């Protein structure tokens, strides 16, 4: 097997004893063996740390490293790992504590990113579809299949994949490392999509699922599949949740403003008009920014949100 370089697996944990062993075992069974595992634990009070300790004794010293997380939520926990300059390798992959990876998950994704780099792409982000499973490991279905082009225009109002599928190169992590301490993010996966696409990087979507994504009550972020789930999500967005997210993303993007491509800078400036007092100006901003979701009906809903001043 070709060795494309070390992959640092970035895992966030918090009271994950119920599911963690299955995920660690799936990491152990990866066909791509050149990996290091960095676990940021956010203050677990259950048996999580003991499970990690029992797992780590099967490997040489340094193969598995446990760090103390910031303790202020999953997004900041993953951001802490991304910004840690002591974690340095060719590639990086996120891992949740309760999923299960297929054996070729790392092999397929790292080969893809390496190939894209060889084709001249400096900043690269890989993500993909997932298979949804229940607590009995029964397949429930698949996450939505995205067919529309991945771009900054899409990233401003939608993430393209879950962080549990993502693998990215050091050039992207280096950009993240520069983010000031007081600048927050909404979620680590959406943040990387916005940043990578914004600076003109290559974003690759894999339609073939390589991760079994567990659906249960403890999930902090679910798949949002199903009519009821989509209705609840829409209701929360209309109550102003997305507007709060846009404020957080705006602060982040203003820091990277000089890194944006000229075209994406114009898109960002047009998007900024979506918070104008005038409804007409807001809808013009939405149109000029060429914003879209992967689903055309959802795009229309978000355009309506802009008219109602619920977008940003």
Give your account of this protein's structure.
- There is one protein chain.
- With 312 residues, this protein is of the alpha/beta class.
- It has 2 domains: 7-214, Spore Coat Polysaccharide Biosynthesis Protein SpsA, Chain A (Alpha-Beta Complex); 227-307, no CATH class.
- 40% of the residues lie in helices and 16% in strands.
- The protein has 12 helices and 11 strands.
- It has helices at 20-28, 48-56, 74-83, 105-118, 152-155, 170-177, 188-198, 227-238, 241-255, 262-272, 279-288, 296-307; strands spanning 7-13, 35-41, 64-68, 91-95, 100-101, 124-128, 131-133, 139-142, 167-169, 202-206, 211-214.
- The strands form 2 sheets. It has a 7-stranded mixed β-sheet with strand order 3-2-1-4-9-6-10, sandwiched between helices. A 4-stranded mixed β-sheet has the order 5-11-7-8.
- Helix 1 packs parallel to helix 2, helix 10 packs antiparallel against helix 11 and helix 11 (279-288) packs antiparallel against helix 12.
- The longest helix has 15 residues, at 241-255.
- 39% of the residues are buried.
General shape: globular
* CATH domain class name of the largest domain: Alpha Beta
Percent helix range: 40-55%
Q: Using only CA atoms, what is the Rg?
A: 19 Å
Number of domain units? 2
pLDDT < 50 stretches: none
**In CATH terms, what is the architecture of the largest domain?**
Alpha-Beta Complex
Number of strands: 11
How do the strands of the widest beta sheet line up side by side?
3-2-1-4-9-6-10
> What share of the residues does DSSP label as strand, in percent?
15-25%
Question: SSE order in H/E notation?
Answer: EHEHEHEEHEEEHEHHEEHHHHH
Mean pLDDT: 94
């Amino acid at each position: 097997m070709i060795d494309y370089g070390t992959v640092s697996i970035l895992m966030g944990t918090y009271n994950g004893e119920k599911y963690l062993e299955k995920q660690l075992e799936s990491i152990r069974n990866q066909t791509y063996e050149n990996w290091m595992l960095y676990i940021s634990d956010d203050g677990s009070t259950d048996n999580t740390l003991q499970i990690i300790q029992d797992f780590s004794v099967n490997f040489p010293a340094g193969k598995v490293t446990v760090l103390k997380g910031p303790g202020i939520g999953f997004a900041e926990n993953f951001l802490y790992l991304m910004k840690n300059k002591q974690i340095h390798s060719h590639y990086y992959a996120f891992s949740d504590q309760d999923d299960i990876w297929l054996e070729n998950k790392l092999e397929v994704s790292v080969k893809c990113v390496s190939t894209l780099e060889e084709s001249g792409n400096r900043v690269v982000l890989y993500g993909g579809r997932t298979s949804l499973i229940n607590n009995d490991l029964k397949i429930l279905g698949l996450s939505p299949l995205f067919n529309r082009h991945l771009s900054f225009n899409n990233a401003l109002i939608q993430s393209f994949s879950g962080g549990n599928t993502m693998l990215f190169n050091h050039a992207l992590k280096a950009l993240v490392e520069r983010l000031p301490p007081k600048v927050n993010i909404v979620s680590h996966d959406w943040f990387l999509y916005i940043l990578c696409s914004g600076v003109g990087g290559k974003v690759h979507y894999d339609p073939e699922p390589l991760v079994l994504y567990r659906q249960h009550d403890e999930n902090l972020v679910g798949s949002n599949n199903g009519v009821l789930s989509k209705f609840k999500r829409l209701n929360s967005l209309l109550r102003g949740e997305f507007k709060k997210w846009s404020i957080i993303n705006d602060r982040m993007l203003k820091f990277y403003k000089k890194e944006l491509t000229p075209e994406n800078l114009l898109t960002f400036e047009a998007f900024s008009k979506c918070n104008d007092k005038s409804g007409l100006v807001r809808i013009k901003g939405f149109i000029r920014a060429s914003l879209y979701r992967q689903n055309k009906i959802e795009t229309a809903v978000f355009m309506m949100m802009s008219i109602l001043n619920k977008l940003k």
